[in-house]
Design goal:
By secondary structure, this protein is α/β, with parallel strands linked by helices. It folds into three domains: 269 residues, Rossmann fold, CATH 3.40.50.620; 111 residues, Isoleucyl-tRNA Synthetase, Domain 1, CATH 1.10.730; 51 residues, no CATH class. It contains 14 helices and 16 strands. The strands form five sheets. It has a five-stranded parallel sheet with strand order 5-4-3-10-11, sandwiched between helices. A four-stranded antiparallel sheet has the order 6-7-8-9. Strands 13-12-14 form a three-stranded mixed sheet, covered by helices on one side. The structure holds adenosine monophosphate and zinc ion (ZN).
């Protein structure tokens, strides 16, 4: 598996900490408004990454936060509190706003066939963890108190700019919004870990802390939730490119200061969806939602298909003309699939070639358009029959999730099951003896027969493909 890593600025071979297991963290929404379709593009990319890794046989443990406190309208420590803004706009309190938009977010995820991450952490539920981390950072001199707030001292971090490739002189060029001119900071890019001096008189969400009543900074929440839910070592951390600086940069600084070692190996960022006027943004109040697209007659999966046609690292410009083309193409694809004859004998041995091609496309830094091309190649192929095509497409749809409405049920008889279990046992034995060549050959042999092994921490299960 090859992935572009923002940290090294290179496409790298992906090697997780634990064999066949991936710990993945994806930054979640700030729930003060609906998600716009730009945000949703990022969640679709993360969904494909998770499902693709599962398709390759990894056991993916994924966590995501819901930001219901601490996010100001600038990504630095300036501007208004986003949650309070939402509450004011709608004449509700912050709890109602958070609940309403969290539910709206999960409805959008469901409509887009995005798998809900294994664990969801609400920022306001992890206050003790942030306090534990901040206390340690103060103790170890990574943080300091000034004018009542606790700040992270970026001059203490090891290579603070390694993720963004920026340097201190860049800070005020083009990213004016990302750092604040707060006179209480030692360095302009220092950031708040804990606010006790709030400029918001009506701040409702606040907690007691060793430094006074207050609330956490935005960046500490992801470091805290990830540490609590996924442990000290993270394989993949995702988000949109706007998260690289300052959010993810600050996450790395805090987590590594607290943990005392490298935290996350692979940083994957999705490029933005723009409208014609430029970046789509939630905070400027005008943006496209999934519901709006539905009102205009598009299905959520038309939008998913539209996103899959381009590479996640390329900026994508939204237009209704392009969405129309995606809608037509998806309709045609579904009709073609529906017209396939599902009564023929499945030629399992012929499936591998296409499945391998599909995997290779995914392994090539998540090349979704090539994955779709492979799907079209299956439809056009003249060396496999219709029912075999259906089985392959059904398998691909586990990752693509376009609801291709396939009827291709495969029976598994008990004799076959017995045979598979025997093979799994032989493979476990081979692994125990460190004979990985034999273990791999057993896995490949089963795969060529249409049986995919899924390695979990405690056991190996299988699925018929
Ligand atoms: P937010 O709710 O603003 O915190 O953003 C949620 C996710 O959407 C984050 O991963 C952002 O990086 C990402 N994001 C924000 N704007 C865009 C955009 N225009 N296109 C794609 N992703 C975006
Ligand atoms: Zn985050």
């Amino acid at each position: 598996m090859k992935l572009y890593n923002t940290l090294s600025k290179k496409v790298e071979e992906f090697v997780p900490f634990h064999e066949r297991e991936v710990r993945m963290y994806t930054c979640g929404p700030t729930v003060y408004n609906y998600a716009h379709i730009g945000n949703l593009r990022t969640y679709i990319f993360e969904d494909i990454l998770q499902k693709g890794l599962e398709y390759l046989g990894y056991d993916v443990k994924r966590a995501m936060n819901i930001t219901d406190v601490g996010h100001l309208t600038s990504d630095g420590d300036t501007g208004n509190d986003k949650m309070l803004e939402g509450a004011k706009r709608e004449g509700k309190d912050v709890f109602e706003i958070a609940q309403f938009y969290t539910e709206a977010f999960f409805k959008d995820m469901e409509k887009l066939n995005i798998k809900v991450p294994t664990i969801i952490g609400k920022a306001s539920d992890y206050i003790d963890t942030y306090i534990e981390m901040i206390s340690k950072m103060l103790e170890d001199d990574y943080a300091y108190i000034s004018n009542g707030n606790v700040y992270f001292d970026i001059s203490k971090a090891k290579d603070y700019y390694k993720l963004s490739g920026k340097n201190a002189d860049d800070l005020f060029v083009g990213v004016r919004d990302s750092v604040s001119l707060d006179v209480h900071k030692k360095n302009p890019a220092d950031f708040v870990l804990w606010f006790t001096v709030s400029k918001f008189e009506n701040q409702i969400l606040k907690w007691d802390s060793p430094w006074g009543v207050g609330y956490p900074g935005w960046h500490i929440e992801c470091s805290g939730i990830s540490y609590k839910l996924l442990g000290e070592y993270l394989d993949i951390h995702c988000g949109g490119v706007d998260n690289i600086f300052p959010h993810h940069t600050n996450e790395i600084a805090q987590s590594e200061a607290f943990l005392g070692h490298k935290w996350c190996n692979y940083w994957c960022h999705g490029a933005h969806l723009n409208d014609k006027s430029g970046k789509m943004s939630k905070s400027n109040g005008e943006f496209l939602t999934l519901t709006l697209l539905q009102e205009k007659g598009y299905s959520p999966l038309d939008y998913r298909y539209f996103c899959l046609n381009s590479h996640y690292r390329n900026t994508l410009e939204f237009s209704y003309e392009s969405l129309d083309s995606a809608k037509k193409a998806l309709e045609k694809l579904k009709n073609k699939v529906k017209s396939l004859d599902d009564t023929l004998m499945i030629e399992r041995e012929k499936m591998t070639k296409y499945i391998d091609k599909f995997k290779e496309s995914f392994e090539n830094d998540i090349n979704t358009s090539l994955m779709l091309t492979t799907l079209y190649d299956v439809l056009k192929a003249d060396d496999i029959n219709d029912t075999t095509k259906l089985c392959i497409i059904k398998d691909f749809d586990k990752v693509l999730s376009l609801d291709l409405e396939i009827n291709c049920e495969k029976e598994i008889d008990s004799k076959l099951e017995e045979e598979i279990l025997k093979k799994i046992e032989q493979r476990n034995e081979a692994k125990k003896n460190k004979d990985y060549e034999l273990a791999d050959s057993i896995r490949d042999e089963l795969l060529s027969l249409g049986v995919r092994l899924i390695d979990k921490r405690e056991e190996t299960t299988y699925e018929i493909i």
